[in-house]
Amino acid sequence: MQLLGHDKYLEMRAGARVVEQDEHGEKVLLLPDGTYFKLFRRKRVLTSAAWKPYAQRFVENAAALHRLGIPCPQVLQHYRIPAISRDAVHYLPLEGETIRQVIAGGLGEARADALRHQLLEFIHHIHSLGIFFRSAHLGNIVLTPENTLGLIDISDLKISWFALGPFRRRRNLRHVLRCREDREWLRKSTDWAELDK
């Protein structure tokens, strides 16, 4: 982790487009060079986020996913910015479109069926690698130009040494089905419909 002064931070974010923000301020910036700058609030209370900040989790998870061969963002640098009480990760985005974006762009039924099957196989694969992606939904799983699937928004995942057991696998698959629009699209597949019972 590298300390980043306020002036240097302002210089880095000059000309950036705000991609995501909340009531606490900016969360994700798209920099003019096409890289991203993700800001994480520093937690002051005694929570797991205070012991292991989300920025650190993002960095560690990116490294672990790369080792496991799962496409994900490539971390360029990890910063602490004391002046704004934030940690930050500067990264190259994962090329491609989220599955939600692919669906919105229009798919023939044969291609949609193939993508539903590919998604289910991908989730089974990451489970076999011990990856539990608590925030899994069709907005943070990316179809890359190589027609492989990868993960973004990776702070909230856990990687264990062993494959996930049946309970955690089913629980994680049900996370993917939480969003109504995602569920309606996925349930057009018999395999996904069975998981939603």
UniProtKB/TrEMBL annotation:
It comes from the Bacteria. This is Toluene tolerance protein. The lineage of its organism: Bacteria, Pseudomonadati, Pseudomonadota, Betaproteobacteria, Rhodocyclales. InterPro entries: Kinase-like_dom_sf.
